[in-house]
Amino acid sequence: MLTVTSAQLFAWLTAFIWPLFRIAALVASAPVLGNPAFPRSAKMGLIVAITLVVSPVLGPMPEVDPGSAAGLLILAQQVVIGIAMGLAMRVVFVAVEMAGSLIGLQMGLGFATFFDPVNSAQVPVVAQFLGILFSLVFLALNGHLLMIEALAESFRAFPVAAQPVSAVGWKTLVDWGGEIFRTGLLLALPMIAALLIANLSIGIMTRAAPQLNIFAVGFPITLAAGFLVLFVTLPYMAPIFEHMMRDGLQMMLQVARATRPAGP
Fold this sequence. Notes:
- By secondary structure, the chain is mostly helical.
- The protein contains eight helices and two strands.
- Helix content is 74%, strand content 3%.
- The protein has a two-stranded antiparallel ribbon with strand order 1-2.
- The longest helix is centred in the last third of the chain and has 46 residues, at 214-259.
């Protein structure tokens, strides 16, 4: 007759539940996979499938009752680590959306906004266009698979443990957040420069011919120049985004390593 002791039951539960919550937190906060349009049933299936593949190779878990205060603390710790890693990757997409906001503002399309269910806010149409476009590039480069690989590697960088997390990881994540402004401006810089030249040209035309209606002439010229330059610069944005994506994957592991408490 097959008998299962409480110790064996707790060992099986901890080997599955604690990794499950880290994986679920990352899937919920990561770009593309965490999109509300992604079906919940598919998300749950993906989370369980990744956990079943990863958990057998994680090694021994802390001998703590999952229902105890220490067990719940470990569970919360896994959720926090997963969210931090997901936010590290989401910074890349927020930088792209910021570039789109700057471009739309320079083109005169700052007022053209759509509701973005991911951010639960009004987002300029150019930012939403770039976000969707680079989401497709992310999938084409197998970024979702690389992100899952980095998640599995994070269990080696920061195994499931009862020790509290280190504050160094949060500083690393905050410093990485500065890339939103630097990279967003870098992506939008060609458009800003081209549209600045267009606006200067319109200003010279208005100065030379004061009777020229700047609102009737300037806006179509700025809009047409913006779309033309955007069409020309899009192919050059893809390598920059690929570099950003790889930096984001490395930052996911750096955050996990930095969050690991000091000691053996």
